[in-house]
Fold this sequence. Notes:
alpha+beta
Amino acid sequence: MLFGDWRNYRNIIAAVLPGILYIAMLGLFGGISDGMQQLLSQTGILDAGVRAYFHRRMLLGVLIGITVTSLMYSKSQYGYPRTDNPVRLFVGCTLVAAMFILATVSLFTGGIFLFSYVLFGIVIGVLIYFVLECGHKRSREIKTGMVVGLLAWCVSLSIGYNTPVLGSGILLVFLFALLHERLVSFSLTHFEEKLKSRWLSAVGVLSAIIVISAFHHVRTHQIYLDRPASELTAQLGDILPGGRLIRTNSNTLAFLSDLDLAIDKVVDRGFEYAIIPDVAAHWAVSKQKNPLPIDWAQEIELNKPELFRRVSQAIEARRHEKMVIVQKLDPTALQRGFFPLMEDKSFHAIVAYVKANLQVVEDTKFFEIYR
């Protein structure tokens, strides 16, 4: 809508088609009612998408963004930036370069998760200045910045990863593009133009090297909930259904191997099995269909009484035909070691329900089997 694409009916079809196909799939399998109940229960948009942005890093970024843009772009009487103050431009460009350097450093130190809020705030600050001081003269930059900001905001809508860090790349590209455009448009003498051209080329090459190095470091040393890549030596192909070519740490391998042992114990007795509260990936291509209506039975997904009842009723239904496998460990901490599952009757209410209403019939090192 920002760029007027809504006027083309093909774009409208492309925008609504995924939703239509999703609803059609739910209808085909008779899951519209359950799907709507599950989706409409997620009402945490204010916490994840609004309140999460109210802190000092975001405010600091906004102030930096307004300051940098006011230095780089001074509105003339015609609404265009002035080109007669190299000191202001130099200071503004230096601040942008400093943000780029800090973002790169934060990639190596792991601080990018929090620093991404600063980057997001800078883009918001840039947009505020453009809207208030330049108006339609900077409509292209305003529209582009709004798209970049919206994308970064969208990828931050998460319970476990509630940060715009996954949008940091496009936030930096937007700021770098403004820096480049401003430097290119700045009027200089012929000799100064040659120096500027060489300087921009050198900065571009150096930036590319730094970014590639930082990206490689992050990809190999800061893997989400896992060890560095050099320590991911355990193959999951024979342990996790669909896990071929996936490598992980030795603790996770031991955990999933023990789950296989627990499953074999249930199957050997001639029963179906359910797994709670985690290990949702097991059901992607498992031989047996999950007898519960949800693969990840914890508070985020079961945040309404009616949703909890659906799962508890599924556990009680055909109780003589199945067993429930309950994990003893916290799988999100396996990269650090073996830690017991958090005893939280709110977050893991379904675990508390099973322990209160079923009996332990057998166990393994990391799992208990209830019936």
